[in-house]
Amino acid sequence: MADERRESSEQNQDSRFQRGNRHYIPRPKYCQFCSDKTQEIDYKNVELLKRFITEEGKIRPRRQTGTCAKHQRALATEIKRARHIALLPFIGGTWQKNNR
Hints:
Elements: H1 2-16, E1 18-19, E2 22-23, H2 32-35, H3 46-50, H4 62-65, H5 69-84
Antiparallel strand pairs: 1-2
């Protein structure tokens, strides 16, 4: 009984990393700011900051962006600063009021 459960759990773990007949190996994420020392996080660089915001306007988490903790905190601060002076929206896309 325990062997059957162990085998089924091993099959589930193997199936997570397969796409079709190929095996899926996730790429390791790295902090682009640590690797490229010339790139600075600045609230005026809106194009850079937009890459770290979802369509809804939320700040993307570290596990999605791959940034280190130090630079994720700096990104959050600069995004909030850019929102405060209206360079970035607080909500994403275009907000439409219901006509009722």
